[in-house]
Amino acid sequence: MNKILCLLILFLPATVYAEIYKTVDENGRVIFTDKPTAKAEQIEVNVNSVEGSATVSNNPSTSSSGGKVVMFSTSWCGVCKTAKKYMSNNGISYKEYDIEKNSNAHRKFKSLGGNGVPLIVVGKQIMSGFSALRLESMLGRSK
């Protein structure tokens, strides 16, 4: 019976819920916490990031950049950091736009169909997520 229970636990999808609350202190500072208080307002947090394998598409609406690499990212994205490290270590020059700090970049990201970061553009090719092999292929290099 214990073995069956263990197997069920392993194969059932795990769902984790966390509640986030926002308050403003007497100095006007915004504070986020996981503990409700009388003055706290519960907020919903939506995190857009891409996990799993990267996908590449050809998008005719993307302006041709002649092999120039453009990456739409955020400062907190671990996959973005991996992509930046890979490109730096392999001599791939790129232009990065933080979609949370640059409203024009956010609009462009959305116009390209961006739903999560990183979104990497090479010419008319778009990759959601990051794969070193796919980036090399987009650049016309084999690894």
Q: Looking across the biggest beta sheet, what order are the strands in?
A: 4-8-7-5-6
Helix proportion: 25-40%
Q: What would you give as the CATH superfamily of the largest domain?
A: Glutaredoxin
What kind of sheet is the major sheet?
Answer: 5 strands, mixed
Explain this structure to me?
The chain is an alpha+beta fold and 143 residues long. The chain folds into two domains: 30 residues, no CATH class; 84 residues, Glutaredoxin, CATH 3.40.30.10. The chain is built from four helices and eight strands, in the order H-E-E-E-E-E-H-E-H-E-E-H. The strands form two sheets. The protein has a five-stranded mixed beta sheet, with helices on both faces. A three-stranded antiparallel beta sheet has the order 2-1-3, with no helix packed on it. The chain is elongated, with a radius of gyration of 20 Å.
Provide the fold topology.
Layout (H helix, E strand, L loop, with lengths): L1 H10 L8 E5 L5 E4 L7 E3 L11 E4 L10 E5 L4 H12 L4 E5 L4 H9 L7 E4 L2 E4 L3 H7 L5
In short, what is this structure?
Helices cover 27% and strands 24% of the residues. The protein has 143 residues and is of the alpha+beta class. 18% of the residues are buried.
Q: What structural keywords apply?
A:
three-stranded antiparallel beta sheet, Glutaredoxin, single chain, elongated, 27% helix, 24% strand, 4 helices, five-stranded mixed beta sheet, 2 domains, 143 residues, alpha+beta
